[in-house]
Design goal:
By secondary structure, the protein is an alpha+beta fold. It is built from seven helices and eleven strands. The protein has three domains: 28-101; 107-166, no CATH class; 178-239, no CATH class. A hairpin with a 4-residue loop joins strand 1 and strand 2 (21-24). The longest helix is centred in the first third of the chain and has 29 residues, at 28-56.
Length: 244
């Protein structure tokens, strides 16, 4: 059974004129690709994998030769069926992981609600000073210039921009404070010891691929008067802007 959100259509893009609510999520084409395309690709890969392994096993320089030759030896019908089933399951898992990672949005003139996995957050329009897209991530800034929200978004960037503008949010083409960021260098002057410790802990969380821990540490930086963002493997920081 599909998740309740899918059956209720909350991942579609559209505006409810009566209630003044815009729901933004995966476009239908993207949703179809995720829910059908990835499992189908996994199924096809499972079918082709033994043949690919037999072809690759002829190479004189082949890493993991024993594993490749084992897969290439799976030529019985039932063995091929098992490999295809594994590919199908992998495709399904990947599709739902992709859905869980991207945020879906619900906007009104007074509030924006976001949902990512089992995490739902809400922000009042009066608490938002700027909205923009940074790379592949949607960012909401508060009235103190701190990041209220940062995360990958399901809808297309043009749809996101149009929706926020339609509801009167302060949309920006980029980060209005981008020029204020500095790359973090451990123990470099200009930051208090507490921020150096926080950024060191956050670096460890990023290395362990603990995305939620990294986000929580970035939120803690706000209490110390700073904003944190990532560029590649580097962390960048800036001080909050008073009166933003």
């Amino acid at each position: 059974m599909l998740d309740e959100r899918f059956r209720k259509g909350r991942l579609s893009t559209g505006t409810d004129a009566r209630g003044g609510t815009t729901a933004l999520g995966h476009p239908r084409g993207d949703l179809l690709l995720l829910l059908v395309g990835l499992p189908a690709a996994g199924l096809a890969l499972g079918l082709a994998l033994p043949r690919l392994a037999r072809w690759a096993s002829g190479s004189p320089v082949l890493p993991w030769r024993q594993a490749v030759e084992f897969v290439g030896g799976l030529d019985a019908l039932w063995q091929t069926g098992i490999v295809m089933a594994v590919g199908l399951v992998a495709g399904v898992v990947l599709s739902f992981m992709a859905l869980a990672e991207d945020m879906t949005l619900e906007l009104t003139d007074t509030e924006v609600r976001t949902e990512r996995g089992d995490e739902t957050r809400a922000f009042a329009r009066t608490d938002v000073s700027a909205v923009f897209i940074d790379g592949q991530q949607l960012v909401l800034l508060g009235t103190d210039s701190a990041e209220l929200l940062r995360g990958g978004h399901a809808p297309r960037a043009a749809d996101v921009a149009a929706a926020f503008r339609a509801h009167g949010y302060p949309w920006r083409d980029g980060d209005p404070y981008a020029a204020l960021f500095h790359r973090w260098i451990p123990e470099a002057p200009g930051l208090p010891a507490e921020m150096h410790a926080l950024l060191a802990a956050r670096k460890g969380a990023l290395k362990r691929d603990k995305g939620r821990d990294a986000r929580e540490l970035a939120e803690l930086a706000r209490g110390l008067g700073y904003v944190v963002r990532d560029e590649g493997k580097d962390q960048y920081w800036r001080a909050l802007v008073t009166g933003a």
